[in-house]
UniProtKB/TrEMBL annotation, chain A:
This is JmjC domain-containing protein. The keyword Nucleotide-binding does not apply. Residues 257-414 form the JmjC domain. Its main location: nucleus. One of its GO terms (molecular function) is histone H3K36 methyltransferase activity. Keywords: Dioxygenase, Iron, Metal-binding, Nucleus, Oxidoreductase. PANTHER family: HYPOXIA-INDUCIBLE FACTOR 1 ALPHA INHIBITOR-RELATED, HYPOXIA-INDUCIBLE FACTOR 1-ALPHA INHIBITOR. Its cofactor is Fe(2+). Pfam families: ARM_KDM8_N, Cupin_8. It comes from Arabis alpina. Belongs to the JARID1 histone demethylase family. GO terms for biological process: callus formation; circadian rhythm; negative regulation of gene expression, epigenetic; primary root development; regulation of abscisic acid-activated signaling pathway; regulation of brassinosteroid mediated signaling pathway; regulation of photoperiodism, flowering; regulation of seedling development. It is found in: Nucleus. The keyword Oxidoreductase applies.
Automatic annotation (TrEMBL), chain B:
It comes from the Eukaryota. Keywords: Repeat. It comes from Arabis alpina (Alpine rock-cress). This is RCC1-like domain-containing protein. Residues 167-176 have a biased composition (Basic and acidic residues).
């Protein structure tokens, strides 16, 4: 690529280096053509030649292809095509000094694009961010170190009014301080038993940094993230949106959205997207028990009152509470019919029982079931064994990280 | 993506207008926000004029001249070579060379492939190879077993327009592998030419001896053909049931007969119907809405057909509700849309994620995905059953013709007024701006009477009487 971007004079001739894109473009375009994407290849060529609107049209075309059929059936080459178009678009914005727009384009590539150009996208984010910080250094500096979540103890009586009935009346999940690996393996992992582990995250940089609004804004403010809006994913009005991290922070702090419709950054692999935040967390040693592989690492960040309805997942799960408090209720994996799972394939790991408002006539068996629950405090980790049903409700603004890992035996198949 | 057999337009001097965008065409050509006249090329103009508009695919447009020539225009590459689907002449409308002298009566384009029907009832198709029947299989069989059969895929994974990162990552690795392979191939064989991926020469589609094709419909990756006795054939990609063969067969490389009528009831029920004639009641049998198919249409990955009695049948991808059966399941067999069983449907058109149909009394119904307002309901909510559009812009209007682009919709009313809605980023609605519309919005075109509308992928073509 000749990189002859047409930056107007006056603006520095900023150019994003994209070595992988430069090396791979030709063969990638050929693969895309092989999938009928002749018009895309034509637009990409025009983009390289300096046509910004062609870059945007190519991105629209690739986006359309990503959504042109069921997600699993989308040809992988279109994910790389999408990343390629995002890089082209970002180059034009960067050359014009439009750093926020450039970051937005790069993030879309990271969120929806393929693997081939991922390094270019990450490196470009670093490149754009550092340019952007150079520009904005003059203006800032009045950091007031505002805390996201004040350290106020939760009033148990108030909390019980919000929680599902019978909360905190049954068995509590056992709490163990600095549990050893052997102890975890023997007493919980092998026995298919949940446990809360305390005093195990003090060394995480996130413990001090993520409660600081200025830090989060500085590190990720201009990054685009997918968020969920609505009571929970089982509701009809639930939807996903893409917003900048600073806008998201603003929303959950000012509670502008009505409490019925919280905004929740949920189940998003944030740390694959924003490397600076990944540096703030440590993968717990417990996740290597069993010899399996780490499957995914997700961020869960939202205001008080977010609910993840009762469901189960196929993997071992450690939920690490970095900021704020959450209520978690667990039902053993042996229960099935009693919790009335949905029949559709897509939702068959979710219970039809709404714990916040149990329909006694429709789900009579769910009423008197034994469960375990706990309030997960800042700095604590909860181990949820595979297939255990869990319901989660945030009691304050909350930022947690979940680690999923598989058993040695089933890691090869996944 | 409108699959109706184009109504005959009375002979006379007609004009073609275009709005929207042909990606890959010369940069100065796009996008066009208000309809502009497309000139018939000098080469064919002598004694010839426009006869019909046929939409087009992603990056190219198609129309038919009075003499039955197929006229195409669209994107071309650096060498001035051309986008194989649009012909060798790039942005200028020119006759597309066909291996037959017979006049073209109807044409349809998918994302990157084309199909036409000649006066003699022959169908030809070309473009993206995946959509073109394999040459070896041309001929007699209707039930060949040569196609690759895939394992049924598990249910869909998307809950909305967004992504699942895990799959995403896996997908990426896969593509990396594939690409390494293709790079190695490049070194030994040199550059792969477009001809490897595109069938540039139209090939004759044979569905059986003596079968005359009367119309063709093209989707994202599949094609349907309708015969003169009202049977429907399909080929191409069928992973979501869009070929109606009862399976998730990934690739059907020869035309297969689609059981549009048979599957609606057992033979017994059918003969019952035959005896009962049109006097159907609300028993189970009344669900059989006819005896033959009179119109077809393809969306991105779904299909629609209309029976002789005005029954609407759909099949294929259902994630957005585009099959109209009240759910988001893929419909693997042709199935009557029960909520409009008491409405006589006249025509139907489909986009990437949505479907629009109009009834014999001129009402408009919409269902499926609505991310860009392409349903015209005034919201962005998807609809899983046909919803009557009753907004004021359609009040008192008798809709006559419908056409859908990838993410936009157009309806022509009996009084010659054109209403468009949906995605408008590239001016495809012809409203003079690039603002999406979620309600039917009237397109102003002074001085001429509109006869036909045909949406292409990201563009819209209009056929009009010349102003007098």
């Amino acid at each position: 690529m000749s990189g002859s971007t047409t930056a107007p004079s006056g603006v520095s001739n900023l150019r994003l280096p994209t070595p992988t894109l430069d090396a791979e473009s030709q063969s990638l375009l050929q693969s895309i053509s092989a999938q009928g994407g002749y018009a895309y290849a034509r637009m990409a060529a025009l983009a390289v030649a300096g046509d910004q609107s062609a870059a945007e049209a190519a991105r629209d075309m690739a986006w359309e292809q990503l959504h042109s059929g069921p997600w699993h059936s989308v040809l992988p080459v279109w994910r790389d095509a999408y990343s390629m178009a995002c890089l082209h678009v970002a180059k034009f914005h960067f050359a014009a000094g439009e750093f926020v727009e450039a970051l937005g384009a790069l993030d879309m590539g990271l969120i929806m694009g393929g693997m081939l150009l991922r390094k270019d996208l990450h490196d470009s984010v670093v490149f754009v961010s550092s340019e952007s910080r150079k520009k904005s250094l003059e203006g800032s500096g009045d950091s007031n170190g505002e805390k996201l979540v004040p350290e106020v103890p939760v009033d148990l009586n108030e909390v019980l009014k919000i929680l599902p009935c019978r909360s905190l009346t049954c068995r509590r999940v056992e709490k163990r301080s600095s549990l050893s690996m052997e102890g975890f393996l023997r007493d919980y992992f092998q026995r298919d038993t949940p446990v809360v582990i305390t005093n195990c995250m003090a060394h995480w940089p996130a413990r001090t940094k993520w409660n600081n609004l200025d830090y989060l804004n500085a590190v990720a403010g201009n990054r685009t993230v997918p968020v969920e809006v609505g009571k929970n994913y089982l509701c009809t009005d639930w939807k996903q949106e893409l917003v900048t991290f600073s806008k998201f922070l603003e929303r959950i702090r000012t509670k502008k959205t009505s409490s019925a419709e919280p905004t929740y950054l949920a189940q998003h692999p944030l740390f694959d997207q924003i490397n600076e935040l990944r540096d703030d967390i440590c993968i717990p040693d417990y996740c290597f028990v069993g010899g399996g592989e780490l499957q995914s690492l997700n961020a869960w960040f939202g205001p008080a009152g977010t609910v993840t309805p009762l469901h189960h997942d196929p993997h071992h799960n450690i939920l690490a509470q970095v900021v704020g408090k959450k209520y978690v209720r667990l039902y053993p994996s042996s229960l099935q019919d009693e919790l009335y799972p949905y029949s559709e394939t897509m939702l068959c790991n979710s219970s039809q029982v709404d714990l916040d408002n149990i329909d006694k006539t429709e789900f009579p068996k769910a009423m008197e079931l034994e469960f375990m629950d706990c309030i997960l405090e800042e700095g604590e980790m909860l181990y949820i064994p595979p297939k255990w049903w869990h319901y989660v409700r945030s009691l304050t603004m909350s930022f947690s990280v979940s680690f999923w890992w598989s058993n040695e035996t089933d890691s090869s198949s996944s | 993506m409108n699959g109706n057999n184009g109504g005959q337009v009375p002979i006379g001097e007609c004009l073609v207008y275009m709005s929207g965008y042909l990606p890959g065409a010369a940069p100065e050509k796009s996008p066009i926000l208000s309809p502009v006249s497309v000139r018939l090329p000098a080469a064919v103009h002598d004694g010839d004029s426009w006869k019909d508009v046929c939409g087009g695919g992603c990056g190219f447009a198609m129309a038919i001249s009075e003499n039955g020539k197929l006229i195409t225009w669209g994107s071309s590459d650096d060498e001035g070579q051309s986008y194989v689907a649009s012909g060798k002449h790039g942005g200028t409308p020119e006759p597309f060379h066909l291996p037959t002298e017979a006049p073209v009566v109807q044409a349809s384009a998918g994302w990157a492939h084309c199909a036409i029907v000649t006066e003699g009832g022959e169908a030809f198709t070309w473009g993206w190879k995946e959509c073109i029947p394999a040459k070896d299989f041309g001929g007699k069989q209707q039930k060949g077993s040569t196609e690759q059969v895939s394992t049924p895929s598990q249910g869909s994974n998307t809950t909305s327009g967004m992504t699942l990162q895990n799959e995403n990552r896996k997908g990426g690795e896969e593509s990396l592998k594939r690409r390494r392979v293709s790079t190695a191939k490049d070194e030994t064989e040199g550059l792969i030419s477009g001809e490897d991926f595109f069938a540039t020469t139209p090939s004759l589609v044979s569905v059986g001896l003596g079968v005359r094709i009367t119309s063709v419909a093209t989707g994202g990756r599949h094609t349907l053909a309708l015969s003169d006795i009202g049977q429907v054939w399909g080929w191409g990609y069928g992973g979501e049931g869009q070929l109606g063969l009862g399976s998730r067969i990934k690739m059907v490389s020869s035309p297969h007969l689609i059981p549009c009528i048979e599957s609606l009831g057992s033979r017994k029920e059918r003969s019952f119907i035959l005896h009962q004639g049109a006097a159907t009641t609300s028993t189970q049998v009344s669900r059989v809405p006819g005896q033959y198919i009179k119109a077809i249409s393809c969306g991105g990955r779904h299909s629609a057909a209309i029976t002789d009695t005005g029954g609407l049948i759909t099949f294929g991808w259902g994630l957005y509700g585009q099959c109209g059966h009240g759910n988001t399941n893929d419909q693997l067999r042709p199935m009557a849309v029960s909520s409009v069983q008491n409405v006589r449907i006249e025509s139907v058109a489909a986009g990437l994620w949505h479907t629009i149909c109009i009834s014999s009394d001129g009402k408009v119904f919409a269902f499926g995905g609505n991310q860009f307002g392409q349903l015209g309901t005034g919201t962005d909510h998807a609809e899983t059953i046909p919803r009557l559009l009753d907004g004021q812009n359609l009040e008192g209007k008798h809709a006559k013709e419908v056409s859908c682009g990838a993410r936009h919709s157009a309806v022509l009313a009996e009084d010659g007024q054109l209403l468009c809605w949906g995605w408008n980023k590239y001016g495809q609605l012809g409203l003079g701006d690039t603002i999406d519309r979620n309600i039917p919005t009237q397109v102003q075109l002074d001085g001429c009477r509109l006869r036909k509308v045909a949406c292409g992928w990201w563009h819209t073509l209009l056929l009009a009487d010349s102003p007098t």
